[in-house]
Amino acid sequence: MRFLITGGAGFIGCNAAPRLSQAGHEVVVFDNFSRAAAPFNRQWLERVEPRIRFVKGDVRQPEDLRAALAEPFDAVLHLAGQVAVTTSILDPVADWQANALGTFHLLEALRARYGKDPGRAPLLLYSSTNKVYGHLTTGEVLRDGRWDLAERPDGVSEEESLSFESPYGCSKGAADQYVVDYHRSFGLPTVCFRQSCIYGTRQFGEEDQGWVAWFALAATFELPITIYGDGLQVRDLLWVDDLVDAYLAALARKEQVSGRAYNVGGGPEFRLSLQELIGDLESRIGRRISVAREKSRLGDQRVFYCDIRKARRELDWQPRVSPREGVGKLLDWIGSNRKEIATFLTRKGIPVTA
């Protein structure tokens, strides 16, 4: 099959693209290479899987998307976008352009090409977020030393009311709903994955996005960590290979999944608080980690974990890599790539030594 991956030089793309290519599929990475990690990731992709083809383009430019989609594809994995709540608050216009407008341009490019015969269109798999739910209606309670959902032990389901909070939540939520509606209104095959705390290799985590990777990097390079809030916030962790499995499961069920949204995360079994991750990292590296405390930020959820029963039932999918195993894999990757990561951090203005 043929895959177009927007934002393919990012973290998730760097895990999806080589896996697809090595399985014998043709992969085109579409990216504007603007993020700090993109040059590192492109060089790595070119080295490990030279069959991947790269197209420089921007989802904010309709002509770039129309040109890319002049070729036929079986699937479009839409990963491009602005990824951090904090950045969206600093520059909500750029956030809206990358997430909401960029996704709209992609949908319109697909409609322009396949509107008369949407059955021929590639399946659009959209990387949405749990932030479309905002603060939850189920209530939050402290239980066993961490925040928990008061009334939903299985986690947040797709039946939860949408509540877009922060510019990032609004831009991703708008894109999420456009993706769902373009199947309903125009018949395009589309599916949304409302993702919760994806982590893994090739994730150059930063303080405002990719917190698991950032904590692991900071612990390894002895950098200070700031926790916003009480540290008892809980997320369900999903190893990136498990996420790619979900994408492939949806692709195998194109007709069934079109127009639907799925909560995809580690679920209640794979949840972890910030403080629990700090403790795990300390036990692995054998020393205390310096942690500063600040007040909670706009858009921060005290607890979120997915009810993944719909994805398990309809996609025959479930996460396999536990946080214990995944954090170990992440630390192994950091240890094997210290020089590359040190160069990245130094260019970001965080001088470290390999």
Describe this structure in words.
The longest helix has 23 residues, at 92-114. The protein has 354 residues and is α/β, with parallel strands linked by helices. Helix 5 (92-114) runs parallel beside helix 6 (166-186), helix 7 (211-221) packs parallel to helix 10 and helix 7 (211-221) packs across helix 12 (323-336). The protein is globular, with a radius of gyration of 19 Å. A 7-stranded parallel β-sheet has the order 3-2-1-4-5-8-13, with helices on both faces. A 3-stranded mixed β-sheet has the order 14-11-16. It has 13 helices and 16 strands.
Which descriptors would you attach to this protein?
single chain; 354 residues; alpha/beta; Rossmann fold; 7-stranded parallel sheet; 3-stranded mixed sheet; 13 helices; globular
Return the string of H and E elements.
EHEHEHEHHEEEHEEHEEEHHEEHEEHHH
CATH class: Alpha Beta
Estimate the strand proportion.
15-25%
The Rg value, from CA coordinates, equals 19 Å
CATH fold annotation: Rossmann fold
Tally of helical runs? 13
The separation of the N and C termini measures: 40 Å
Rounded mean pLDDT score: 95
Widest β-sheet, arrangement of strands: 3-2-1-4-5-8-13
Number of domains: 1
